[in-house]
Each structure stands twice: as structure tokens, then as C-alpha cells.
């Protein structure tokens, strides 16, 4: 491989994919019951245990990758003149990208020609994961780091993220809905559908009455945004794989789409969205659904 592809926990890929593609991981961390734990795609703490803790009432907090961690690893690569492409979690949702940029600037004071490229994907979860999938595919085809970086920059603005969440109180904690909306919505079994906008921020889009209607709404929105149904599509799920497989089945039946991967939502993103989240990722004619 002629260059390293680096990711962080915001990519929500499987551990097996991380290892098979020889990706470098910068882990974000979460604090649960007084312990700080790496979000390393379930290696240090299983996804099942994490979501069981959430369902029992745990309220974890999260931390971005710090500047020192980035600087230490960037220096290693710079000394060896190793080309690196780091696809970072959206700057609209985390300070991780900004920390990486600060660290690289400091490293380049000593190693001005350090061949390290950082891209703010403005993506989250398997939205980042899908860009990583494209990058790995192109690398295997022999594309160089500049060609891959150019492709990712051109693709990211059209990367659609569609989510539905089961528990409105996690959105309330993150300031996405008011306490009153969370309370009433929970009573009425309202399941919001959300998307990630052009600035990489999570935005409420519509409301569905009940889980089944919310899952069908994701599939319908896919149909309104997609142009190429032969492209790779990914689904993320937070301990609700059966629902993820239902969405994959609906996509196949309605649009003849084959889902490339169904990935677990990791502990950092799961801390902010809760259990039973389904998210759908693909390239569309635009990133933001029409109102």
C-alpha cells in the first residue's frame, strides 16, 4: 500500500473491516460509570455491553481526540516520510478535526514536507465509513493519495445521511429537541427522521408515528434523493440489527439495492443518539432533502 488511510471513532466501521483494510484508528473516548474507555469499534468495550448500560439508565460523556495524540502519531509518520490520508469525523459534530489540524501545523514546523492530508468529511458514522470504503477501493486499484483525496472531496458534498432515533431524550441532551417535545413525542411514540446538512450538523427533518413508519420513511427518502442505485450503500445500527436488515430488505425489494455493509454505531456516537438508531448512507443528487 502506497499510503496510510487513517480514521477516527466517528467512522463507525466494524473492527474486522478496520483490520482487513489495515486502517489506522484515532480513538475518541467515552466515560461510563466513572471509567474512561476507548471507542475502538468494540474492542475495548463491546457494543452490546454499552447499549445495555444505556438502557439501564447510564449517561456517558464523550471526549475528542486531543492534540497531543495527533501530534505524536503525525511526527512518527513525518519522520518516516509516510504519506497519510486522514478522513476525519465532521467538524460540525466534533472538535477532533480541528485538533488534528492544529497538531499537523505544529508538526510541519519541524517537518514542512510531511505528506499528511486531513479531510473534514462533514460526515458521521458510516457516512465517514462509506468514504473510507471508497478510499480503500481506490487504493487497491492503485490510485495515489492525491487522486483518492480529490475523489473524497468531490464525493463528500453529495453524501446523504438519513437517521431515525428511538429515544427522544438523547436528542434532548444534545440540544436537538426541547424537553417538552421529548416528553410529548415519547408519549405519542413520535420517531423523528433526521439528516446531516451541508455543514455536517444533525438536523431534524420530519416526524413519523411509530417505529415501522419511521423505517419506511428512510426508504422513501432514499428514493427521493438517490440517482445511482448500483452504488455502495451502508446502514448503521445501535443494537437493533434486525431493524437494519429490514431496511436493507426494503431497499432491495423497492429499488434493487444491495447494501454493502451493516455496521454497529459505536459508543461515542451512541452516547448522543441512544440505542435503536437506524441510519442510512449513500450518494445522492443533493445532500439535504427537499422540504
From TrEMBL:
Protein name: DegV family protein
Record keywords: Lipid-binding
Keyword Nucleotide-binding: no
Alphabetized NCBIfam families for the sequence: DegV
UniProt KW tRNA processing keyword: no
Any Pfam family the entry gives: DegV
Listed GO MF terms: lipid binding
Free-text function comment from the UniProt entry: May bind long-chain fatty acids, such as palmitate, and may play a role in lipid transport or fatty acid metabolism.
Organism in which the protein naturally occurs: Holtiella tumoricola
PROSITE patterns linked: DEGV
Amino acid at each position: 500500500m502506497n499510503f496510510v488511510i487513517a480514521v477516527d471513532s466517528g467512522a463507525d466501521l466494524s473492527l474486522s473491516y478496520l483490520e482487513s483494510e489495515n486502517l489506522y484508528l484515532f480513538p475518541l473516548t467515552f466515560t461510563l460509570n466513572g471509567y474512561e474507555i476507548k471507542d475502538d469499534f468494540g474492542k475495548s468495550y463491546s457494543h452490546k455491553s454499552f447499549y445495555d448500560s444505556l438502557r439501564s439508565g447510564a449517561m456517558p460523556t464523550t471526549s475528542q481526540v486531543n492534540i497531543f495524540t495527533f501530534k505524536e502519531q503525525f511526527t512518527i509518520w513525518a519522520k518516516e516520510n509516510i504519506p497519510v490520508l486522514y478522513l476525519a469525523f465532521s467538524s460540525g459534530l466534533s472538535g477532533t478535526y480541528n485538533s488534528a489540524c492544529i497538531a499537523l501545523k505544529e508538526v510541519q514546523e519541524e517537518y514542512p514536507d510531511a505528506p499528511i492530508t486531513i479531510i473534514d468529511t462533514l460526515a458521521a458514522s458510516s457516512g465517514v465509513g462509506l468514504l473510507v470504503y471508497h478510499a480503500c477501493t481506490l487504493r487497491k486499484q492503485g490510485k495515489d493519495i492525491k487522486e483518492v483525496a480529490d475523489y473524497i472531496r468531490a464525493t463528500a458534498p453529495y453524501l446523504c445521511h438519513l437517521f431515525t432515533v428511538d429515544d427522544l431524550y438523547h436528542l434532548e441532551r444534545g440540544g436537538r429537541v426541547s424537553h417538552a417535545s421529548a416528553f410529548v413525542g415519547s408519549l405519542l411514540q413520535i420517531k423523528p427522521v433526521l439528516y446531516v446538512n451541508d455543514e455536517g450538523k444533525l438536523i431534524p427533518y420530519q416526524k413519523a408515528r411509530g417505529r415501522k413508519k419511521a423505517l419506511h420513511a428512510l426508504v422513501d427518502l432514499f428514493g427521493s434523493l438517490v440517482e445511482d442505485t448500483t452504488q455502495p450503500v451502508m446502514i448503521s445500527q445501535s443494537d437493533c440489527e434486525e431493524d437494519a436488515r429490514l431496511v436493507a430488505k426494503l431497499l432491495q425489494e423497492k429499488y434493487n439495492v444491495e447494501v454493502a455493509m451493516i455496521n454497529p454505531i459505536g459508543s461515542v456516537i451512541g452516547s448522543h443518539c441512544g440505542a435503536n438508531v437506524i441510519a442510512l448512507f449513500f450518494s445522492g443528487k443533493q445532500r439535504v432533502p427537499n422540504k
